[in-house]
Write a structure and sequence with these properties.
By secondary structure, this protein is mainly α. The protein starts with 12 loop residues before the first helix and ends in a 9-residue tail after the last helix. It has 2 domains: 77 residues, no CATH class; 31 residues, no CATH class.
Amino acid sequence: MPRSRYSITADDVLHVTEYLTNQLHDHRLDACEDEESYEQFEEAIHTPGGKKKRAEALNAWCEAFLNRNEWKRLNTNVRKRRQRYLRHNDYATLTVSARSHELLQQLSARDNVTFSDILEHCLSKAVKSSRKIPRSR
């Protein structure tokens, strides 16, 4: 198969293994038509000798079984997963009531700031205060 410029590194082993496992499980790769590819993939991900050896084995497997488009998708997926792992502590998702959302929208529009800015400002004041917040339920 055609060789991509991307080479799997030891740091990428987790990401590559997850991606390829899912792709093979969902039959989304051309390699799914070849039974031998499954066995060789299992051997590659269980290669003894640490991440570096596993990266080499996965690289060899990909060179043998992935086409150019599949290499591109692998590279893109690994890059995105790396970015998500790097910034996983930067943001959190939370659920607010419809009323809270409405108030956040009003403050955001009025002060031209983000919801996060509003929450940080108000919560930092609340944390510094000795007064307790009354329960609404």
